[in-house]
Amino acid sequence: MGDRRAIFRLGLAPLILLACNLFAGAQLPYLGATLTVTLLMPGGPRPPLKMLAGALVLVMGISWALARGFGALADSPASVWMALLALATACFAKLAVAPQNIPALLALLVSVVVTALIQADPSLTGPLPWIMGLAALQAVVVTLLAHAILPSQGPGFKPPQPRAAPASPGLVALAKAVAMVAALGVCAAAGQTSGVLVAITLSNMLRLPEDAAANRFGRWLVFANVAALLLVLPLVVVAILRPENIALVPLALAFGLWIAAGHGRMDWRGMLTQLGLPVFVLVLGQTLPSVDANALTDMADRLVFLGFSVLYGAAVLILLRPGTARATA
């Protein structure tokens, strides 16, 4: 059984923030909630204030650098894409030995999300660093409040425990980064607006160990992502039928708690929490601001893109398994 307080923090805090942003009519309301999921996912006691302050600076710095790069080099952005590739490689290399390293998690998430947003809407180049900065500030404040209201019982904050690195950590990290950047490039070239969903799904999948797609774990990868998106469907139906129905909020919180209940577990419930909760928060935040007669069609499109992203991410992990290279030799 995982830490119950961590489950309540993870299941409630991001969705409460998302609800506040939706009611306030915030631009890109899901960003703060998505970053909050990243900060709360490791569980345990509250991270040090110094780390949270550094996270805020990190988000602002990466957002500004990428937005400035894509804006200044709009005609020939190859150098910005190469910088993104280098940053993603460094993040994957760090996460290979410290899976819950908060700076690496945030750097990877912010870099791919900012890239996907700018490629989908170049007009965001100017305001996006400020939007991301506000989202990061919201995430830090909500994280502090969540830990103050529901503090974990136990020893103080411990840095992420390292795990065994792959045989060729640099090459594996580079391969994952290439796969990540290639997927973003395809979305940009195709003019797709689902780039953020693809970016978050792949960044969460590719940071898993290379054997995560083997055997039953591979089925769990698919289930976790698809189930999270399907849980948004009844909320969208309620929003279409009764837009002012206040029951939408407690229903979303109940779904969030159910998804978060697998926190700390090493089975399909744990995979649903780790991979499904970011998808649930993102799709909910993307869909609810503009619920109309086409909302279900948009959900179907997102399901298709999510399915392709999951299969693509699983294929990359399978190809990078150490046993795969020996089997094909």
Element layout with pairings:
Blueprint: H1 4-24, H2 30-40, H3 49-72, H4 78-97, H5 102-120, H6 128-149, H7 169-190, H8 195-206, H9 215-241, H10 248-260, H11 268-287, H12 295-319, H13 322-328
Helix pairs in contact: 1-2, 1-6, 1-10, 2-6, 2-11, 3-5, 3-6, 4-5, 4-7, 5-7, 5-8, 7-8, 7-12, 8-11, 8-12, 9-10, 9-11, 9-12
* Radius of gyration computed on alpha carbons: 19 Å
Helix content: over 70%
Q: What is the CA-CA span between the terminal residues?
A: 43 Å
Average residue-wise pLDDT: 84
What structural category characterises the helix and strand content?
mainly alpha
Using the alpha-carbon principal axes, give the shape.
Answer: globular
Largest sheet: none
Unreliable stretches? 156-160, 325-329
The number of distinct β-strands equals 0
From N to C, what is the helix and strand string? HHHHHHHHHHHHH
Number of domains: 1
Strand content is under 5%
**Oligomeric state of the chains?**
single chain
How many H/I helical runs? 13
